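Lab notebook page, bench 4
Experiment: in silico fold of construct C2
Operator: M.H.
Input chain length: 408 residues
Purpose: comparison with the prior construct
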Amino acid sequence: MRETAAHRVVVTGIGVVSAIGLDCTSFWESLAAGRSGIRPITLVDVSTFRFQNGAEVPGYDPLRYFDEKQAGFLDRFAQFAVIAAREAVKESGITFADPSRTAIVTGSCVGGQSSMDNEFIEVYRKGSSRVSPLTIARVMGNAGASHISMEFGITGPAYTVSTACSSANHAIGQAFHLLRSGQVDTAIAGGSEAVFSFGFLKSWEAMRVVAPDTCRPFSKDRKGLILGEGAAMLVLETLESARARGARIHGEIVGFGMSSDAHHITHPSAEGASRAMRAAIADSRIAAEVIGHINAHGTGTQVNDSTETVAIRQTFGVHAEKIAVNSTKSMHGHTLGAAGALEAAATMLALEHGLVPPTANFNERDSSCDLDVVVDQARALQAEYALSNSFAFGGLNAVLAFRSRGAL
């Protein structure tokens, strides 16, 4: 059988909705300035909780983006997905000449959790015998992908990946594979999440991994993660397509690696994380020594950050000393199923601008996290290659490898 040549895959559009910016430009400006979006939670009464802070999308009004009827069909997480996709498509300038040759792959950990929680309140607390007939349509995890499909008339493969905190990285990686293999010509890929509902926050409180103050990844005094919400979507297309239409290229996706820890449902494994990084590097067909930046999973929990440090050292050996590491969760929070998408956008923008955003809220170096963690202020980046790590509960790992547009 004749082998089909692999296509190179580039990013030509980025759309973002986050706690630190309602579009890609403001998102990057906040990242570069080290400006955190972690603040008191307003969407839920958390006065009795062990934690009061989160990374909410500030001043969000759905009627700025949707008419009242349309907004009624979409849970907050799906609204974020559509808004980010709109920005990414507009920025890319792409037209979907053959909608059947375009894919949509999104990631979400919990889907329409807020809608589900609201209906549970109606049934269990208020004793109502009826719920909204739109409940299922709002709750389903694929709602973001489905509404993006309808928004742009896209009729190619469309689906949602749910692998906890690795969902968006898995989604982008799947879209990358579809393009590289020639199964589709273009794709919209990313993730979205809206986590601020009473019952869901109560569940996180019970785990005792949420910080009482803020997220301090890799800092010795870190006390846990901070939950966030938002979305990021990327427009992906082949390099030849982007060049043919004169599109602005942000950068290239060159590799994708996955692994499963087969270890523990919540405790991470350095070996599993390292396997995923090695797989992404091997898939890229590059030497590990050319990686100059890692946007770490960096949740701010004691176990995750020290385990990820070990994994990076296992993967890169002495070269680990030369890699600029950061965690943007310190600014936009841990957005669960959307985390990989926001961090993919941050990593690609870091390569594009030649600047690694700082890890915010950092106080003190930790000997168990002895990496070159970028803190205090952004740092110039000369490297052409970077990784973005996502490691999920259940031991499901997904790592993306990027190349700067200057290397094309």
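Observations: Residues 80 and 153 are 18 Å apart (CA to CA). The chain has a mean pLDDT of 96.
Next step: discuss at group meeting.
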